[in-house]
Each structure stands twice: as C-alpha cells, then as structure tokens.
Amino acid sequence: MGEPGTKELLSLEDLEATSRHRTGRKHTLSILVENKPGVLTRIAGLFARRGFNLDTLTVGPTDDERISRITLTLDGALHPIDQVTKQLHKLVNVLKIRDLEPSETVARELAMFKLAADGTARAEVMQICEIFRGKVVDVTKKSITVEVTGTTDKIAAFERMVRPFGLVEMMRTGEIAISRGRGET
Amino acid sequence: MRAVDAVMECLKAEGVEVVFGYPGGANLPTYDAFVDAGIRHVLVRHEQGGGHAAEGYARATGKVGVCLATSGPGATNLVTSITNAMMDSTPVVYLTGQVRTELLGTDGFQEADMLGITMPVVKHSFLIQHPLEIPRAIHEAFHIARTGRPGPVVVDMPQDLSRAEIPYEPVMDVHLPGYQPTTEGNQKQIRQAAKALASARRPVVYAGGGVVNANAAEELTALVRADRFPVTLTLMGLGAYPAPDPQFLGMLGMHGTRAANYAIDEADLVCCVGARFDDRVTGKLDEFAPRAKFIHIDVDPAEISKNVPAHIPIVGDAKQILAKLVAEYRALKADSSRLEEWWQRIDQWRERHPLAYADSSDSEIKPQYMIEALHEATGGDCVVTSDVGQHQMWVAQYFPFTNPREWVNSGGLGTMGFGLPAAVGAAVGRPDKTVVCVTGDGSVQMNIQELATCATDGIPVKVLIMNNGYLGMVRQWQELFWDRRYSQVGMGTWPDFAKLAEAYGCTGMRCEDKTTLVEDIRRALETPGPVVVDVRVTQEENVYPMIAPGAPARDMVG
Q1: A42 Cα to chain B: minimum distance (Å)
Q2: Predicted ipTM?
Q3: Which of A100, A133, A166 is the last residue of a domain?
C-alpha cells in the first residue's frame, strides 16, 4: 500500500474512536467538592442544562470541614459517563471525581418503610424484616415503620416483599459508597 | 485600606489599564476608589455595552477585559455579555455591586441574585462573604478567566463589604486545587497525530477560535505549511491563517465555501484545532465528514468527543501542541506528492464554485461589494467588528483576514448589538489600529447609545451600516424556508442614521452609489473621531452558498 516514497506509518483504518460509548450499567460517582456556597446548585444546574438525569444524590461532610462529599448515581445507558465527569471537572469547586467500580466498592442506602400492618400481618412483616436485617423503629396500632440498610437492590427487594402489606410511605436516602481496601475513595 | 482600594491595587497588579462600566448605588464605593486609582474608566451608556466593550477589548488585545456594573438591573444587563463571553471563550472579569449583606435575600432595592442568575453561563463566579476574601477573589477571577479555556468570571461584591477596612497585602500566588488546566499535551498522542497526518491522503486542517485564544496562529501556519495541508477556519478562527494563501480553502460551515465543505466531506483525516464541531459547522452531525478519522486538539477536555468522537484526542494548549506536532511531522519526512490528487480535486471545486455574486449593472450597492470596498479602502489593515446576521456572514466571506485578533464578532451566541460596543473596546485596546464596525440597520440599534461613549471619549470607531431596511437574515430564512411569508422583518426607513450620528456628536454620512463607495469609505476613515456611514444596499440579497439547517454539508445550495 502507499505511493512511491511514502512510508505508511499507520493505517487510518485502524484508528479507533475514543469514548462516547454508553456503558449500559449504573454508575456511582463519588465527588469531593469545596464546601462553598452554591456548589450543589452548580452541580445540579450542570446536570439540568446538559440533560443528564440523576438517579440519586447525597451530600455530606467529610473528615475535613472545608470539603464535602457528593455521591451520585446515574444510568450509563442514557449518558456517556466520561462526558458527565469531564463537564463536572470544569467546575472550579470540584476537587476530585471517582467513577467507582462496582466490584471495588461497598455501597449502601438507608430506607424507611411505613406499613399499614396490624395483627398477623405485623408478625409477617417483622419476620421479613429480620431476614433483611431491618429494624422496627416505630409501631402504632395501625402501622409499623421499618428501617433497612443495604444495596439499592436489597432495598428494592425488601420493598417488593412488604408492599402487599400496605405501603403508606417509603423514604430512601440515596446511595453512599466507599472503596474497598486501604486506599482512599 | 478600604477593600475597594485593595480592588484597585489588585487590578493594577493584574496589569489592567482600562475598565468599562456604569456606576450605581451598590458599587458607589468602587467608583469612589476609581477617583484616585489612576486606572482609565470608560463610561458606557448601557451595561450591556460595557460588557461587550470589555469582550471586544479582550478579543482584540488578548488581555483580560474588565467590566463593572451595579447590583440588580445593572448586573442583569450584563447577562447577555456574560453568556456571549462564555460561548466564545472570551476572558472577561465582571465586577458587580450587590446590596448590603443585611439586605441579601430580602428583595431589597436593586437586589438580584446575580450568582444564581449567571451560574449557567459563567466559567466561575464568586459571591464575596467577607471583606478579607476580596483581594484573593479578584486574583483568582483573573487567573480563571485567562487560563485554560478562557471565559467570563463574575465577582459579586456586597456594598458594605466592599467599603470595609482590611489589612491589604499583595496576593502573590493563586492556588486553586480544583482548577488545574492541562497545557502540555500528551507526547505520545502528538506523535500518533503526526503519523496519522503523514499517512493521510485527503487530510484537512480545521481550526477555530481556540487557535486565536492560544496565540497560536504562527504555529498553525507552520503546521499547515509543514506539508501542503489544506486548511479551513471557523467563523471564530478567521485570521488565524492568512486568507489570501492558496492553502486556505475559506471558511467552512453553513455559509462557508463549497471547497471547504466538500473537502471535509471527502476527507480521510480531519485535524481539528481549537474548534468544537458546532452545528453551524457540521450541518447534519451524522453525515459530517463521514469518511474521516479525527485528531482533536483542545484545551477543554470536555470538548473532546462531545459532538464528534475523536480518534486521536490531544488535550492542552494549542500553541505548545502545534509546535511539537510540527516538529514530529517534519521528522517523518512525509512525501508531499501523496497529496497531489487531493489538491486536484480541491482545485476543481474551487474553480467550479468560487465565492461569487452578481454585481449590479448600475449604481446599486450590492452588500458583498460593500465588504470588498471596505477591504479596498483599508487595504485590509484594520480591526473589523461585526454584529450578527447577513452582514456578518458577508464580512466572513469577502474580507480576507490575514492576522488574528483583527476580526471580532459574536459567534456562538449570535448576539445582535455586539458590534458597536465591541468596536469601542477594540479601539480602546488597539489605539494604533483603525477599528471598523460593520453592522446592520437592525443590529446597530440594539446598542446604538454607545455612539455617545465614542463621541464623549473621542473613540474613533468607524461604523459602516449595511442598510437594507430588513432584518436580512431572518428575511432570508422566511424567503427560503417559510414560503416568503415575511413576518416582522421590515425595518422601515427610520431612523436617519446620518442625522442620528450627528445628534450623538459623531460624523454622519450616507452612501447610495457604488461608484463613490470606496472613496466615501476612505473619507470616513480619514475623518477624525467616530463616523457613521449609512450604506444603502440591495434590499433583498441572500447569503450564499448555504447549507440548510440540519442538512449535510454536501447538499449546499446557491
């Protein structure tokens, strides 16, 4: 291949496009931000105007009071995640972003379920609760409130189990996640 | 000293010689500080004009522009300029006054949540919460505005904090842990790009405003001339490569040349430098350069693969990267003869489809001729600013820019009313240069009050109004895509721009005759002070060639 005198240095045909592909799985982004006014608005605004959909978002302090951690989850089937992280990185108050590998991460969410369960139903609920290592945090004559901690899947499974008993309300915190092993998240 | 006096010290330390602004209640302390600061202040007649003047200054000089406004309406009047600066990556620091801290959140007089309003359109913003933060915030604002991909930064200063006494110590360094733009470019990627260029049979270099921002025009030229690479520029990039050069194909995109658009369409390799594959460039995205692989050089990593997936991404400063790329490419000693066939194809397009228009056979002034006349009268030696619409496209097509920073227009946002105040800023920043604002009878009226600024401050801007009595570009679209059902595009015959100019203290002229046009423009350029020339051109003329919105580049019409 090639004309006389021209060395074929690489084949353009073989060049592959970078990124832009959709992974198709859920992503958990762990973001360290400066604890300054408006930071959350900047992030929420960025997601809104770029058309990125958040599934969950949690914000909390870290061991350093100048820094907060935002954990958010989003669907990698809908968005090119690298475009999301690159846009986030442009925010001056964003210090660090990690797209956590599911296998390298412990992720938890807290949920509370208020159920209209009395009599025998209540006993059944408590049994299910035990299986899921949940905790009863409030009881009245007409209701029982249960706290469950776990992965998003576990909480979804618990919801499926108790919904038939009359789900009055459900509250979920959204996921937080920490990397496995000694290294920092 | 007072915090506002510290602000003046900070501005001086940043090398600021001139600011554009408008005083009001919430920035009274700042304006008090100006009395003794020894920094030139240009009093505009509308805050939007101040914003665009600061942009024009920044674009024409490469320095950071500075604009001041008071709280509330003063600040909100800046929003268009801030958005414009964001879209066109222009470094401007906006210092806005804010109501006293005790009034914040109470809907106080002239209170507006400037931080909130501008959040989507700034590179970064600061709301001062303590007077001690002020000096550092100012320096950080300049640093952020100037470095990486340049952009607008807002510093919102509550009035009470700005006049507080603080112990001022010069800030020597800026440290922003969350802001570390990449500059150098990955050497391996650069080598890969050089090899790809050497292997390409149908390469095109496609460069944009990023090259101008990076002061990399010389390096771009070196790359293009390192071989016989065809080069095309975006609207924002014009001047980054000398237009009269045979390797220049003209602008690409919606109103680009056929040669440029067809070359991209058939290219096997597109080397994009400091451009962002905007929809006005690509036309139908899926069919943009369908046969090409892409090298993408940009200082903003988020631009890489945003619209078009890059095969060889290189993040960093175009000036540094291009210099290295040229060296790598030269070392490969590629054989230029491989491009022979490609040039034959390109030359065919150029021959068959040159930029052309049907000139009038009488004294009627065709708008395209008006731009050619301007070029003839100036010899090309001037800074041209423009507004938005047909006249802007005709300047882009018919004025062969040879140097960067001599073409100042509103690209990404397409802001009518940009041209005149931008010319004010450019003229203040480049007193050595003739500054011409080419505008339309629609656009000019969106910030015409700045003629008073020109007259009062003796800013010798030459304003050429391409007057066709229409909002020409909208009329063109109604003609082409809406069955010629003209709706609200006729501008009538008023005002009399020559008289209006005189009323503003400028020289007013009118020209309706093609045969005297060059001479009339010359006379305008030689007349001291600001001059307005009302040029009556053909009323219904269309900008061609054109890619219809959403159509692929190869389907150009006209």
Answers
A1: 7
A2: 0.89
A3: A100
